[in-house]
Design a protein that fits this description.
Radius of gyration: 22 Å
Protein name: Peroxidase
CATH architecture of the largest domain: Orthogonal Bundle
Distance between the termini: 47 Å
CATH topology of the largest domain: Peroxidase, domain 2
Helix content: 40-55%
Organism: Gossypium hirsutum
Shape: globular
Number of domains: 2
CATH superfamily of the largest domain: Peroxidase, domain 2
Bound molecules: protoporphyrin IX containing FE, 2-acetamido-2-deoxy-beta-D-glucopyranose
Binding site for Ca(2+) 2: 198, 249, 257
Binding site for heme b: 197
GO molecular function: heme binding; lactoperoxidase activity; metal ion binding; peroxidase activity
Strand order of the largest sheet: 1-2
CATH class of the largest domain: Mainly Alpha
């Protein structure tokens, strides 16, 4: 009896040590099965709620993949974009580039449902990464990419930090690539992830300066197709209305595909930052390659979005697992 108890304790100690070692090995790394033991239903819950919500809101994919991008580029993928403003510290979501970030309510619903089955286990940053994947994948019969998990949530969100981290629609190629490089992303990631603009819409203010008196001679931006500029002037009169939006990939803004690269090569990218992708030889080559091959876009996007989803992540004991995605834990 005594022997047996001792043996059990010995096994227990060995197990704990091994678990400890496993944890140490996992620190700083994301993994595909992170919640396999601690919250096996998490992925399914996200999937079901997103399936439900995309039926009534087919633009949710655009909303959420953009939200993930904004999250990852400011303080890493730590769900800082989800935090509400507290006291006098204005949160990221209130910053100028916030324009039209939405879908926060969907993340809240998912969080509530997951907290019910496994409280304090699944981070908001992971929920956002899964939700974005599932919403973009909704029109397809399978998930378009795998999502690594194990991110922890940050405790700070500052509107001022969107400056210099989120790219401007007026940026030239040099600025864009500098920004992406600083996040560990290369020119291929820049061009591939820009392909996300195959879905969604943009407000007139983000590009209308290209339509009216661009160089001071009453003209439009010469890097924009003149016929298309004319059509856009009809959609975005001057002075503009702050509520009008235009599809970034006209007539197919709900279908996630490589069509964006057709648009780009026809000089119909809405932003100056999109025209900029054609000003660099290497970047232009990648645009052309992706335009020619529909099948290469999907694996390329999967690879780059995996990199984006791992930017400056908090893992192990860093940060926390928020109970409510809008506020840090009390
Ligand atoms: C390369 C630099 C980028 C710039 C300058 C840029 C800029 C913008 C701007 C100005 C808008 C319009 C916002 C509005 O008026 O409401 C927009 C929309 C969008 N962006 Fe980007 N973006 C970039 C990269 C990305 C990346 C990497 C992703 C995701 C992987 C992304 C996904 C989206 C989506 C899906 C929308 C549409 C959102 C909606 O319809 O609600 N963008 N982007
Ligand atoms: C979506 O969820 C709502 C609210 O929970 C529910 O009433 C509705 O039946 C669901 N719709 C689908 C298509 O699952
Ligand atoms: C907000 O301000 C109050 C009073 O100054 C302070 O006690 C509290 O910690 C602050 N909350 C956060 C999240 O900074
Ligand atoms: C916020 O700022 C205002 C004015 O600057 C100040 O009166 C107020 O006490 C501040 N509140 C907190 C919680 O810091
Ligand atoms: C975006 O930020 C501006 C301030 O820069 C604020 O006035 C506006 O309400 C914000 N929009 C949203 C949707 O949060
Ligand atoms: C690109 O934009 C940056 C920032 O606006 C500017 O400093 C730089 O001179 C521009 N580069 C080129 C090549 O136009
Ligand atoms: C266009 O810009 C130039 C230079 O800034 C200015 O002199 C001119 O009045 C503008 N024209 C119109 C129609 O706004």
């Amino acid at each position: 009896m005594k022997m047996r108890a001792g043996y059990c304790i010995f096994i227990l100690l060995v197990s704990l040590t091994l678990l400890g070692i496993v944890d140490v090995c996992n620190a700083g790394k994301l993994s595909y099965k992170f919640y396999k033991r601690t919250c096996p239903r998490a992925e399914q819950i996200v999937k079901e709620i997103i399936q439900n919500r995309t039926q009534s809101n087919p633009s949710l994919g655009a909303r959420l993949i953009r939200m993930q991008f904004h999250d990852c580029f400011v303080r890493g993928c730590d769900a800082s974009v989800l935090l509400d403003t507290v006291n006098n510290s204005t949160a990221e979501k209130e910053a100028i580039p916030n324009s039209s970030l939405s879908g926060f309510d969907v993340i809240d619903d998912i969080k509530t449902a997951i907290e019910r089955v496994c409280p304090k286990v699944v981070s908001c940053a992971d929920i956002l990464a899964l939700a974005a994947r599932d919403a973009v994948s909704a029109p397809f019969s399978k998930p378009l990419w795998d999502v690594q998990l194990g991110r922890r949530d940050g405790m700070v969100s500052l509107a001022t930090e969107t400056n210099g981290n989120l790219p401007s629609p007026f940026a030239n190629f040099t600025s864009l690539i500098q920004l992406f490089n600083r996040k560990g992303l290369d020119v291929n990631d820049l061009v591939v992830l820009s392909g996300a603009h195959t879905i969604g819409v943009a407000h007139c203010a983000t590009f209308s300066s290209r339509l009216y008196n661009f160089t001071g001679k009453g003209d439009a931006d010469p890097s924009l197709d003149p016929t298309y500029a004319e059509a856009l002037r009809k959609q975005c009169p001057n002075p503009g209305s702050p509520t009008i939006t235009v599809e970034m990939d006209p007539t197919s803004s709900l279908s996630f595909d490589n069509h964006y690269y057709d648009i780009l090569l026809q000089k119909k990218g809405l932003f100056g930052s999109e025209a900029a992708l054609l000003t660099n030889r290497n970047s232009r080559k990648i645009v052309t390659r992706l335009q020619r091959s529909r099948s290469s876009f999907f694996p390329a996007f999967a690879k780059s979005v995996k990199k984006m989803g791992a930017i400056e992540v908090l893992t192990g004991n860093a940060g926390e697992v928020r109970q409510n995605c809008r506020v840090v834990n009390p």
